[in-house]
Amino acid sequence: MTSVFIIAHSDVVRAGLESLVAGEAGLTVAGSAADLSEAATQLPEGAAPDVLIFDAERQGEETLGALRPFIEDLYEGVEVPALVVIGAEREEWIREALREGLVQAALPGVASSGEIIAAVVAVSNGLIALDAETFASVFSTAASAVDDLTGAQSYDERSPSVEPMREALTPREREVLEMLAEGLSNKEIAWRMKISEHTVKFHIASIFGKLGASTRTEAVMQGIRQGLVMM
Question: How many domains does the chain have?
């Protein structure tokens, strides 16, 4: 059974999501809360549900910013739940959260019951889930930003030799990348930097996204090519 915890400010929405999840074979409701503060008192540390549904409506922008530290603090050193966010209207935040691996599914506030269940099932199996509108808005914005930087009018008109400009690594990410080049494990990196293994995972996910890498070796090779790692 896939356990699902629900965070929604509205009592009606929360009850509806609970009923939706409970009525689906293979899913079970692990609990629910109105906000992050209430969720922190109900979610046991070190025992994450498989999926966390977060309804962003009426939660406020500061709550979106608090999601990362909330998850890091609650599940330090253990496997974190897959996060499904509903109704987050900030495209920039969604794009960043997807890129860094914080969010595995993003749906609009008008998502249907079928779409929500499909997203929960997808992320529980390690997939990313986006509705067509969210996909188009997030990635068209990213493509437009690249066009502005390169002076290109469209993807088809862009020279094949021109690679999209990538966001620069933070000092901490460069430090982690250098340790990846040394062949250190997550545990060893965490010990050396005096941070949790979970935080190391977040840094590595961000590095992968910024360098367009899918493995440690690929990230290190990209780092060497871009002068971020000295060998």
Answer: 2
The pTM is what?
0.60
Residue 104: inside a domain: yes
Domain that holds residue 9: 2-130
We report the CATH number of the domain holding residue 13 as 3.40.50.2300
118-153 confidence digits (pLDDT tens): 999 999 888 888 887 777 766 665 444 444 444 544
Q: Which residue pairs from 204-208 have beta carbons closer than 8 angstroms and sit at least 24 positions apart in sequence? A: 204/176, 204/180, 205/100, 205/101, 206/99, 206/100, 206/101, 206/170, 206/173, 207/169, 207/173, 207/176, 207/177, 207/180
The CA distance from 48 to 126, in Å, is 15
Record the tokens describing residue 201, joined without a space: 């995972």
Based on the domain organization, do 11 and 83 belong to the same domain? yes
Confidence of residue 102 (pLDDT cuts 50, 70, 90): confident
Query: 2: closest CA among 170, 118, 143?
Result: 118
As a whole number, mean pLDDT of residues 113-121 equals 92
